[in-house]
Amino acid sequence: MRAFVLLLVISACLVTVPSSGCRSASYAGPSSDLLESATAAYLAGDYDSAVREYTDFLGSQPRSAEASQAYLGRGNAYYGLGRWRLAQADFENARSITRDRAVRARATLGLAHALFAQESYEEAQGVYMEVLRVHRGHVPQDEASYRLGISLARRAQWQDASDYLREVVSRWPQGEFARLARAKLPCVAQGRFTVQVGAFTDRRLAERRLEELRAGGFEAEMAEIDMDGTTGYAARSGRLSTWAEARSHAARLESAGFSTYLLP
């Protein structure tokens, strides 16, 4: 579970702040410098400084033509900090005021990510579908399709989830999201959730982890998986019918000292 949250934080960097390309004379000066400084801080991973500087820019130029970029940038910075609701609000603001199609597309993708991170999967599903329908060419389609597939899976809409994940594997076979989709598809095909507590190239290590699970009173099973072209062995626990049950089971495992990764 922690690994997936980390993935979400890293993937936020894909929703980048667009460069204005040039400054109009009416916005040259300290405010434009502040926007550039905020964007530089964001790209450097200094999200706290980025939030402060985007906020200062919006306070000084709330009606500027670049306000939508500032909201988008601050939303990305809040996302990087794991402050999902604030990120959601900024992405919604950017969408509502911009006339720039690229900014609107990135803000829409950011909004979908923020909803996904809050586990509002039904809402995220609708926004990802908007991304794929309206914003083709402006944001990564493989990412949106993958996250739409996972949103559907988390709501136990297994066939639709499988269709989107298989599309990612088929259309973008060499991409990172195709790799992730391949890892999730077996659980989607089985129509169940499970919790992974370790993945190893050495089968004996996986068997040891299974013994530890059973000793703790947990269900345990091994799954053969692909680990970057090498055969791996995953230790997993639980055959669960809902995402809520999977989250609860993961919490019990974590309380017992296991690291967890929920599937799909």
How would you describe this structure to a colleague?
The protein is α+β, with helices and mostly antiparallel strands and 264 residues long. The chain is built from twelve helices and four strands; from the N terminus they run H-H-H-H-H-H-H-H-H-H-E-H-E-E-H-E. The longest helix is centred in the middle third of the chain and has 17 residues, at 101-117.
Helix content: 55-70%
Which spans have pLDDT < 50 for at least 5 consecutive residues? Answer: 1-28
| Shape descriptor | elongated
- The separation of the N and C termini measures 10 Å
Tell me the structural class: alpha+beta
Number of domains: 2
Look up the CATH topology of the largest domain.
Answer: Serine Threonine Protein Phosphatase 5, Tetratricopeptide repeat
Helical run tally: 12
Strand order of the largest sheet: 2-3-1-4
- Full CATH superfamily name of the largest domain: Tetratricopeptide repeat domain
User: Could you tell me the radius of gyration in angstroms?
Assistant: 21 Å
Element-by-element helix/strand order? HHHHHHHHHHEHEEHE
CATH class of the largest domain: Mainly Alpha
